[in-house]
Specification:
The protein contains 16 helices and 25 strands. The chain is α/β, with parallel strands linked by helices.
């Protein structure tokens, strides 16, 4: 028997939540096949097929493996699944997904918060490019259908596996445009047709971002109808809900209602309570999820391990300013009366700015990325001091000058709530971030450190230091739980029939190194990451090979 990879002396944490155990792991690939398999023991009559073998006994004599890894002192886990990512907005620039894979991530779930690069109606590519510009930059759109887009992704040769959702915002832009109004019956049918085409091509479901235009313009009935249209196809509904601050409980209830009435599973994105005045709502929202699950609704959530979020800065502006798309937004920013109306809507007591993400002070909003590198990392309070303007005017000037292509980090959450949400039994881990930058740098901007540190932070800070949960539970939240939600029968576990996606980490040293002032830093304590049997992270070396695949529902 010939093996391509042998991992010896490790402790296997298999992703199911079961106790860790000492085991050796080996895999073998049959020429012309791309899948890998696992067995709980070695079979002497094992069929020669793509094989991942797990053994708690000594390995039999075989032809010398191509690669041998001594995993003494390391835990051998399934590759981590980032259940909530936005890397589809940057794969054209960074198909190697280095900042994610170095964390142990082998699969990313993208098309979140209503954003996806497809479908694109003829003549509306510019609308889609402007819409996503504040998150990932300009997407070089050469497709119309969702299937054409997935073919484009395959052609990029990504290093990471990709699970793609279709965004509700993309459906609305294609069928309706950027207008702030209810859909007509014909437009609803058009969106449902585009959703069906996306599911046929390989989408896992659809996502909403109910604080982002144009998704915010969709009412509950529109979303229930979309959900019902895919219920027979086992489509999934992932939602950045309509409010994470004052209306948090109503927004969570709406997400549950869409799943319950639409007959589909629900994922509530980045579960949090934003704004100090809303921190006390976290426990009530988790009890709402428990109640829905008791009624038979398949509702779960995801969390990132930081008290700050990140998004487009133009999202600080009220929804009516976005009516008609970015061009109309920029026109309104020129209009002094529109600015005064926005200030009247959002400014509280002259000091705090209130949006669907809660009330926040100007010193709690940090510029992350824009075209002016000297501004990256400063807060809007400092921008106001430098420019001699009122903070709201300074913010609106920046959004206008950058044509809405500026991102921000908002410090609006409670550290205690982060731990509560992470520890909740039905929440998994999602970074809500982009895969960033191959190579040593230097790299621009001050993006949220979650792009580099989400998964090692869960392991190092919340598992080892805070002892919020066991290693087995931590790994389960990042692997098997996510695979179950997605229906991935060949990922998420080190088990018979599963793919050879593996992350090896040192429980004594694993930790995030990325910080808000210095975010472009890879973690420590994750010396090996294997994607579909190929060693991508090999100590300090990163092999940006096309090891990943565009996954489709099973």
């Amino acid at each position: 028997m010939a093996w391509s990879l042998l991992i010896r002396n490790g402790t296997v944490v298999d992703g199911s939540g079961a106790p860790a155990r000492a085991a050796d792991v080996a895999d073998q690939e049959r020429p012309g096949h791309g899948a890998y398999w696992a067995a709980s023991r070695i079979f002497t009559d094992f069929i020669l097929s793509p094989t991942l073998i797990l053994s708690t006994t000594s390995m039999p004599e075989v032809t010398r493996p191509k690669t041998v890894i001594d995993a003494k002192g390391l835990m051998v886990a399934p590759g981590f699944i980032d259940i909530h990512s936005h890397s589809d907005l940057v794969y054209d620039k960074c198909p190697s997904a280095e900042s994610k894979v170095r964390q142990g991530v082998t699969t990313e779930v993208v098309g979140m918060c209503s954003f996806s690069p497809a479908p694109v109606a003829p003549g509306r590519a510019d609308l889609v490019q402007e819409w996503a510009g504040g998150i990932g930059g300009k997407i070089p759109i050469t497709w119309n259908t969702f299937g054409e887009y997935l073919d484009h992704l395959r052609g990029l040769g990504p290093t990471v596996n990709i699970v793609q959702f279709v965004g509700h915002g993309a459906l609305r832009l294609a069928a309706v445009g950027p207008a702030a109004r209810p859909v007509t019956p014909d437009e609803q049918q058009g969106m449902e047709r585009l959703l069906a085409e996306a599911l046929d091509a390989g989408a896992f479901g659809f996502s909403t971002g109910l604080v982002y235009a144009p998704s915010v313009y969709g009412n509950t009935d529109e979303l229930v109808s979309l959900a019902r249209s895919m219920a027979g196809r086992r489509g999934l509904y992932f939602s950045h809900i309509r409010g994470e601050a004052a209306t948090l409980e109503q927004a969570a209830e709406e997400a549950i209602r869409i799943g319950e009435q639409g007959g589909v599973p629900v994922q509530i994105a980045h579960v949090k309570a934003s704004g100090r005045e809303n921190w006390g709502k976290m426990d009530r929202v988790l009890r709402m999820i428990d109640g829905a699950r008791a009624r038979g609704v398949d509702v779960t959530g995801d969390v990132y391990p930081y008290p700050a979020g990140s998004t487009k800065m133009d999202n600080l502006l009220p929804a009516w300013m976005h009516d008609g798309g970015i061009s109309k937004l920029l026109e309104r920013l020129i209009d002094p009366k529109a600015r005064q109306r926005a200030i009247a809507d959002c400014l509280v007591d002259g000091e705090r700015w209130r949006t669907g993400s809660g009330g926040m002070g100007w010193d709690e909003i940090m510029i992350a990325t824009c075209s002016k590198p000297e501004l990256a990392g400063i807060h809007l309070a400092e921008l106001a001091r430098r420019t001699g303007k009122e903070p709201a005017q300074a913010m609106m000037d920046l959004v206008m000058e950058e044509r809405a292509g500026v991102s921000m980090i908002v410090f609006s959450q409670s550290e205690d709530n982060v731990g509560t949400a992470l520890g909740y039994a039905h929440n998994m881990v999602g970074s809500d971030s982009l895969s960033l930058h191959a190579g040593p740098g230097p790299h621009p901007g001050k993006p949220h450190p979650r792009s580099y540190g989400t998964f090692p932070r869960v392991l190092g800070v919340y598992c080892r230091e805070k002892r919020l949960f066991s290693w087995e539970t931590a790994v389960h939240k990042m692997t098997g739980m996510a695979a179950t939600k997605l229906g991935l029968k060949d990922r998420g576990l080190v088990q018979a029939g599963r793919a050879a996606d593996l992350a090896l980490f040192d429980p004594a040293t694993v930790r995030d190194e990325a910080t808000f002032p210095d975010p472009h830093r890879h973690p420590v304590g994750i010396p090996y990451v294997i994607v579909n049997g190929q060693v991508v992270v090999d100590g300090p070396r990163y092999h940006a090979v096309p090891a990943g695949r565009v996954l489709t529902p099973q």
